[in-house]
Amino acid sequence: MAHDATPQDAEPQNTARKKRPVRSAAAHSAAAPSDGPALTGGPGIPLVTADEAKIKTAVVRCLEISENRLTAQTDWYADLSDSDKALLHRVFEAAVHGFVDWVGTYVSPQEHAPINTDHIFFVAPVEFMRSIKLSQTLDATRVIVDVITENLDMLSNNSTVQQDLMDAALIYSRSVAFSAAEVYANAAEVRGTWDARDEAFVVESLLMGDTGQALQARMASFQWTPQTYSVAFVGKPDARGDLRAGMQQDRLRRRISSMGGYVCMSRHRDLLVALFGSPEQTIPSVDPDHSAKYSQELAKSLTSGRQASAETAGESSDTTMPPSTMPPSGTLPNAYDLVLGTARASADERITLDSLTRLALPLFDADSAVCMGPVRQGFDGASATMRAALNGYYAAVTIADCPRPLSSDDVLPERALFGDADARRELYEGIYQTLKQPDEKNVMLETVKLYLFNGGSLDKTAQQLSVHPNTVRYRLRRSVDLTGWDPTDPREAYVLLTALKIGMCKDSNPDL
């Protein structure tokens, strides 16, 4: 650990520090007055007093100074609870006692007993890592090393060996830091494994429509609540390497978190399923309950989404940054910049359809379809958007010039054809029932039905309804306002025709 050099440590600039020869035990004995029995190690070099009372006083004083300094110099120590401060005190105490025990074996940086500092953080490992971050642990390590090196006279009255004590403290503190990093890394690895299992459980349960208490408890750990708005993306994962994919996912999680949202991702067979959540209704730019208008509004934003995806793909095509995107001289790019490009989020960026499209598309294979489900609320809504996105992905092969991402609502007929109950219900309730008017004649429904059954002929439809063709035109425009689907567009006419046939069948047989 770094420490401020005292005047006697200062050396001329550009002059290499000479290696200090190891002094013999006799030299030490001659240079130092006796301060009680000496704690000796190696060839018998006395570095620390063996006076137990003096050692105990030194330890207590070092701990007291360290805790006062942490309170004054950090913004986190004062906020710890009394129990957490007591826990950290135990770790400090174990570290100082471990140093005093080990330093008796120290002769030189090359000659000393092996350092074992694992016991320091296993005083209370689980509780410790829950309460105190690794960065805070390292802060505390720096402080206590500084305190020890500033108060070496508490451990030895021999001024000629205090430099040895300082070197020993630095070597010991390095081992403590590595031990802390290993403990936290192991805990993070275990926690990451369990997080991955939790995410896989959540994804598979939602796809099966299981939104019981067990699932809700798991989703609560990802901050989902009954008020959360969710939207899912499904597609083949980026196949350019596991490391690259991991970095993409990690950056996405950080970005969504910084925007106030949540992410749950896992593999389902050979596909990647990504579920995004927002505590506010900021994801949709239109009413999420009006699926057709939602789909059309999304279609308007696809151009910008595809452009953003192309730009990201261009930035990410190489593992090195082109000269034009290299950071200014004197700064170093991080790994994300080198591998994934230099896209940055603005400070006020919010979770919207456009931002999610731009951030999510790089997760998926650039040559395959990606389907996005509708925005829904709550746990049942999370299940619905995920199932819709998955079934929409499988139906994407039926769409010519498939947009990226494809809205699951744009393939409602295809989803209904292979048994998607959600799609059938959406077509029946969102289109057929909407076209049904309270009057007995169901004028709007009949007009759209005859127009579609007559192959889009205005004159034939008007003749069968005994109205002027302009009346048919007016009613068709009104139907678009009601459903969001345009009967004069070939693709949307197919959606409407499928909805009408499902509705007619259900009206004739309510048990369907």
- Spatial extent as radius of gyration: 35 Å
Give the low-pLDDT segments.
1-46, 285-292, 302-345
Overall pLDDT level: 74
Q: What is the 3D shape?
A: rod-shaped
- Class computed from helices, strands and strand pairing: alpha+beta
**Percent helix:** 40-55%
Question: What summary fits the major beta sheet?
Answer: 6 strands, mixed
Count of DSSP E strands?
Answer: 8
Structure description:
The relative contact order is 0.07. It is rod-shaped and about 115 Å long. The strands form two sheets. Strands 3, 4, 5, 6, 7 and 8 form a six-stranded mixed beta sheet that branches. Mean pLDDT is 74; it is low at 1-46, 285-292 and 302-345. It is an alpha+beta fold. Helix 16 (443-453) packs across helix 18 (469-483), helix 16 packs across helix 19 (490-508) and helix 17 packs across helix 18. The protein is built from 19 helices and eight strands. It has helices spanning 25-31, 52-73, 82-103, 118-121, 125-131, 134-150, 162-207, 213-220, 242-258, 291-315, 335-340, 353-360, 378-395, 412-417, 421-435, 443-453, 458-465, 469-483, 490-508; strands at residues 38-41, 45-49, 229-235, 262-268, 271-278, 370-372, 376-377, 406-407. It is 55% helix and 7% strand.
Question: Main traits of this protein?
Answer:
single chain; rod-shaped; alpha+beta; disordered N terminus; 512 residues; two-stranded antiparallel ribbon; six-stranded mixed beta sheet
Concise summary:
Helices cover 55% and strands 7% of the residues. The protein has helices at 25-31, 52-73, 82-103, 118-121, 125-131, 134-150, 162-207, 213-220, 242-258, 291-315, 335-340, 353-360, 378-395, 412-417, 421-435, 443-453, 458-465, 469-483, 490-508; strands at residues 38-41, 45-49, 229-235, 262-268, 271-278, 370-372, 376-377, 406-407.
